[in-house]
Amino acid sequence: MRLVLLGLPGAGKGAQGERIAAYYGIPHISTGDIIRRSIASQSSMGREADRHISQGHLIPDKLAEEIVRQRLRDTDCHRGWILDGYPRTIHQARDLDRMLAKCGSEVDIAFEIRIREEQAIGRVAERRICRDCGATYHLQYYRVRGKGLCERCGGELHQRNDDNERTAFERLRVYMEYSHPVVHYYAQQGRLYSIDGERAIDEVFKDVQHVLDVTRLADSVGEVS
Fold it and tell me: Hey, which residues are catalytic here?
């Protein structure tokens, strides 16, 4: 399976990507995580990316495309993958299609996880990240209240520099201008499934899982084992 996750900042793409990866055994590739690691390492790529991200802007297409090309060459991607945070522009979506076509493959499904803009602002401003393992939490649902510790590894939770209302509003503007057209791009190709993302994480995943299982069943019809 080759999947793309789309949606407003804070829609829950990372949470769904982690669940899909665990259930189906394919890597969850968050371009945002890759870029943030590059920024933390102070690499030349990280410094270039940080100039754009800190203002709520997208990184240049060429930089994003090269990051994805390098990652998809890894052996763990041979059976499939989940792209979270890419493609974010029509140019990137077309470039991904061209790259995959050279290998005789394509994006199988693009999921749009839908939430309202006001939900997105609230989720981004109340998001916290574990410094050690990268797990993501929302303060509204965080269970270990008052401790500020990761439920998975016990690491310290912190707020990303770009997770604030001012930057969130700019990210929403940028998303609607550059990234939302990608939703229509996949819809026109008949590869888009739209999911209500304002429910509990497990409920959203049930819908995602249903689509994937039905699709996999349909693809196997007529096969001889």
Answer: 13, 88, 127, 160, 171
